[in-house]
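As a representative case, the lines below give one protein's residues and fold tokens.
***
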Amino acid sequence: MPQSISGGAATHAAVFAPLVGAGRAEAVEQRLTDAITLGVLHDGERLPSETALARQFGVAVVTAREALEALRTRGLVTTRRGRDGGSFVTSGGISTGQVIAERLRGHSRAELRDLGVHYAAIAGMAAELAADRSSPEDVSDLAATVAAIDTSSEVGARRGAGRFALEVAALSQSARLVREQIRLQSEFGPLLWLCLREQDYREANRAAQLAVIDALGAVDPAAARLRTTDNIRQAVDWLIGAKADLESKDTAP
């Protein structure tokens, strides 16, 4: 069984998961920008070395170097030399609203719907299997994870959403599902959970997580899948609405 993913390891695992397809510097830059925007990589945090980044993302060292240089130019990373040197996050230089708007403009509504369908299929199957395969102790640990999520803040809720999804995937006892959840979370998670900027959605997300836990405890695979996919559908609906609002502002005279 895959080990439970605890603490900040879940969201960090998604950030530094290997890139799919061509390993371009722009793709590395986008992945790190998303992580900084969402607060997964916090201000002052040291990034892995160029060599380590290249290995984790599955790209050439020169590609990782180019991505870091682009982040330095944008004021998102600073590099210090010396014994205690390295590249550090400087999140104060980012305009979250602008980055989010750029990401939304980069996807059509159909693409967002399709990504949501894929994400729901993976997360729903993971929840279904977890209901069959998790122990009462596993369910208790998952409940403790949810209880520790700070829903009073957008960043805390986002981190919690990522961790919860990966914990459930781990309980499915499918290494492939865990890997795919990590990949999708890195690709789509930054957009999917934009709704968590609103307190009502943070509370609804917490309620959905608790409903999934109840389904796992009751060994009810169908309910676990349904609660999971319904929550994702609502997040995608919010996202489509946000894109429509953005497009309306873009075309306003």
